[in-house]
Amino acid sequence: MISSTVLMLFAADEECGPRRAAKQAEGCEMSDRPIELLLVEDEDDFRDTCARWMQRKGHKVTAVSNGAEAIGLCESQHFDVAVFDMNMPGMSGIELLQRVQQASIDIEVIILTGQGTIESAVAAMKMGACDFMTKPCSLGDLEHHCQLARTRGELRRENEQLKAVISRSRPALQMIGESGSMRAVARMIEKVAPTDKPVLIQGASGTGKEVVARAIQQNSPLRDKPFVTINCAALPEQLVESELFGHQKGSFTGATAEKPGLFEIADGGTLFIDEIGEMPLALQPKLLRVLEDGSMRRIGSAKERTVHVRIIAATNRDLTSEVEKGNFREDLFYRINVLPLQLPLLCEREGDIERLIDHYVPASWRVAPEVRAALTAYSWPGNIRQLINVIQRATILADDNEITLNELPAEVLLGGSLGPGHAPRPEPAIQTGSHTAGLDVAKVASAASPGGSIPTLDDIAKSHVLDVLARENGNKAKAARRLGIHRRKLYRLLERFEESSPNESTASTASTAEASQVRNT
Ligand SMILES: Nc1ncnc2c1ncn2[C@@H]1O[C@H](COP(=O)(O)OP(=O)(O)OP(=O)(O)O)[C@@H](O)[C@H]1O
């Protein structure tokens, strides 16, 4: 069994504020990365001396003499820390701080005050400055305060990421597989995990691409950093860009607030791009750019940002032929195809079907031997997802905690070994277009309501949707067509079933239903 289980939860820090953060920052290792500093000071000598000192210490300094210039720079460029002089002609340090906050600029601000203006410095901190210093100050102190401020900003961002991780985290998944082909996959995971290079996971629907992506992340040095996922197939095309890159307020109809993209949320961690073959062609150059040098812009923003994100992409399409057909950019393909990993079909994993049955059938349930024989003989075109769906359907339909041949769908019975003398039970059927879905309403009713009460519409819908999905071998596009609904609606339904189900296998079944999320496995 390949384990991929780490869940780190951080208790919310009730006591916040600059002092507390500074204390935390002092306890932390300081980053030796150069500080990107904006220095705003109208006294020429003092400004030049500070700027030269910080530059000699290896930091990147932009020094200006007034607030108007500073605000323009903040809007177009990233700075870790800004030092604002309190008393400047035109726009004071406090006004500048207000402007920075109104524009939601992500920056740590230190206020520089003259002697005797401590009260206003305290007021500035209440307004969101992270620290203050009184002039004249030693240059060593200036660098130290800037380092503390930068660390505070990093902690704050990390905290935001962790909150997102906690609020959207899901149960850890186990990777089941002892077959030779899965051992080869496990070896490959061990090899690719420690690097920071992109990985492209290819495999048919339901073979476990997302599970493998999470295993890579869990075995990588980024295991404690965010693991953010986006499913390009589950989002309307026009939303993929704003999910990935974020947007400025007012940049398009409906952009009512500023929103960071998943690249920013994943900064320092891993971004799993599922169904990358569905990525809109027009968006591919933007993705290529961020893969090349980490640079990106939110929709509607001129500000360039740099992110450090490890990319794991997955697809069930043959990307080489998508490139030939002109649906996928060749340069992007080469960028993401640095470490390719091909997942085997379930029928190519000797002995794993048995192991998966034992894992997914609830512990107190029995599985008749002929059922095992039928399940292991079947070819599973929809792979593990289809197997889980069939098991789940069977546990809804079965009596007395025992799965018999009666609870298996016809295609499994016909495709597998039926066993001597078995005649499948005739099932009342619901007609879906030209397709007989075979939903046994009476069985669902008794399974859902042992006391004989009427099942809810949701119970029936869930069983029906899972049944059609299983019949279509886990292929969501085909299942959606069969059900007469849009594929995105099917994703939403699977997501709803997952939320309403306490059963882990249900959660797993609909795992790709979420279009995008942040999680720590
Ligand atoms: N090795 C495994 N052990 C146990 N469960 C697995 C394994 N691989 C996949 N699964 C389960 O199978 C289901 C499908 O897995 P996953 O979503 O990772 O497949 P996928 O290849 O990404 O599918 P799709 O292409 O449709 O997005 C999930 O419920 C997952 O938990």
Summarize the structure.
Helix content is 44%, strand content 14%. The chain is of the alpha/beta class and 521 residues long. The chain is elongated, with a radius of gyration of 28 Å.
Structural account:
- By secondary structure, this protein is an alpha/beta fold.
- It has 3 domains: 34-161, Rossmann fold; 173-344, Rossmann fold; 349-484, no CATH class.
- The protein is 44% helix and 14% strand.
- The protein contains 22 helices and 21 strands.
- Strands 16-8-15-12-9-21 form a 6-stranded mixed beta sheet, sandwiched between helices. Strands 3-2-4-5-6 form a 5-stranded parallel beta sheet, with helices on both faces.
- α4 (93-102) links the parallel β4 and β5 (108-113).
- α1 packs across α6 (139-167), α11 (284-293) crosses α13 and α19 (457-471) crosses α20.
- The model is unreliable at 1-29, 417-452 and 502-521 (pLDDT under 50).
- Residues 173-177, 203, 205-211, 274, 314, 316, 384-385, 388, 508-509, 511-512 line the site of adenosine-5'-triphosphate.
Low-confidence regions: 1-29, 417-452, 502-521
Mean pLDDT: 79
Number of individual domains: 3
Number of helices: 22
CATH architecture classification of the largest domain: 3-Layer(aba) Sandwich
Strand content: 5-15%
CATH H level of the largest domain: which superfamily? Answer: P-loop containing nucleotide triphosphate hydrolases
CATH topology of the largest domain: Rossmann fold
Bound molecules: adenosine-5'-triphosphate
> Which radius of gyration do the C-alpha atoms yield?
28 Å
In helices, the fraction of residues equals: 40-55%
Number of strands: 21
GO molecular function, one term: sequence-specific DNA binding
Domain Response regulatory: 36-150
Organism: Rubripirellula reticaptiva
Pfam families: AAA_lid_14 (PF25601), HTH_8 (PF02954), Response_reg (PF00072), Sigma54_activat (PF00158)
